[in-house]
Design a protein that fits this description.
- This protein has about 290 residues and is α/β, with parallel strands linked by helices.
- The protein is about 30% helix and about 15% strand.
- Helix 3 runs parallel beside helix 4.
- The protein is globular.
């Protein structure tokens, strides 16, 4: 067996060593692409084996939440979502999903959103929660450092009448103006999860300690940022009930690989405490149930 492995290795090097660097990089990217597709297939198979979500989480009195991995016919794809004029990077599938997942809210915990930027997702979440009687007399807790970064933010305002603040200035007034009609349903906090590009002087987020039922994370792509919000909030997660929606989880699938897209590394590191139930087709979203084991 060792002789066969050595022979194969020698042949491998003999063939590929003759290729130039550009050819080798193309092959590397193609192999990475196949690896990512294989991982997707494994997750779909695992979801089938795991079966129903237990204990069940209800969308309404007659329908329970089901596992769905990259299904183009998932339940949320049938939803008609109200037009949202707020600048943002959400796909149609993501808008549908946010309205869909808000139907699961039962009132046993809070709803938290990390990193809303100008609040396109905030608006859609509030629209969905407004249809849910369990959210009556509740507020959506929104956290952001609200630091304007010209390097990537300004381009998203093209074609709008929103005037950007100066680089590294606060855009909290813009957020509040956009959501002036919903301010009574929002608890907005300007704070940081971790040090990042102009927010170093801000206080770190502190959670009030009450249970969390749904958490939207639209800021965690690097490992240290994900670990930071985990340390702040995980003690308030409800076992078998808290839904953690990671907006950019599927960014780890970038080809060529991007070294700081660490979302899958983070969730894998939790060793079963994050149970994948949804991976949204044509989106970056993946959703996990918190398990206390």
């Amino acid at each position: 067996m060792q002789i066969v492995k050595k022979t194969i290795t020698n042949v491998f090097y003999h063939i590929f060593f003759r290729l130039d660097l550009q050819q080798l990089e193309k092959i590397q990217c193609k192999l990475l692409w196949y690896r990512l597709r294989l991982q997707e297939l494994i997750r779909r198979k695992e979801a089938t084996i795991k079966g129903d979500i237990k204990p069940p989480i209800l969308l309404n009195k007659n329908q329970a939440l089901n596992r769905s991995i990259l299904d183009s016919n998932a339940d949320w794809h049938t939803l008609d979502v109200s037009t949202c004029q707020i600048p943002g990077m959400l796909t149609k599938s993501e808008k549908q999903y946010y309205e869909y997942i808000s139907q699961t809210y039962s009132g046993i915990g809070e709803v938290v959103e990390l990193g809303p930027w100008l609040g396109a997702s905030t608006k859609i979440l509030l629209n969905g929660l407004a249809k849910n009687r369990s959210f009556d007399n509740k507020k959506l807790h929104v956290y952001d450092d609200f630091v304007w970064r010209d390097s990537w933010m300004e381009k998203w305002l093209q074609g709008t009448d929103i005037k950007p603040p100066g680089n590294y200035e606060s855009f909290l007034p813009i957020f509040e103006e956009i959501h002036r009609q919903e301010l009574s349903k929002l608890n907005i906090t300007k704070a940081k999860i971790a040090d990042y590009d102009g927010n170093e002087s801000l206080e770190q987020i502190e959670w009030i300690g009450t249970p969390i039922e749904i958490m939207i994370v639209d800021c965690g792509r690097q490992l240290h940022v994900n670990e930071a919000w985990w340390q702040i909030f995980n003690s308030s997660f409800i076992p078998d009930r808290t839904l953690i929606v990671m907006q950019d989880w599927q960014n780890h699938k970038a080809v060529p690989e991007i070294y700081w897209e660490n979302t899958k590394i983070f969730t894998d590191s939790k060793e079963g405490r994050l149970d994948l139930i949804h991976e949204v087709h044509n989106a970056g979203i993946a959703t996990f149930i918190y398990r206390n084991h």
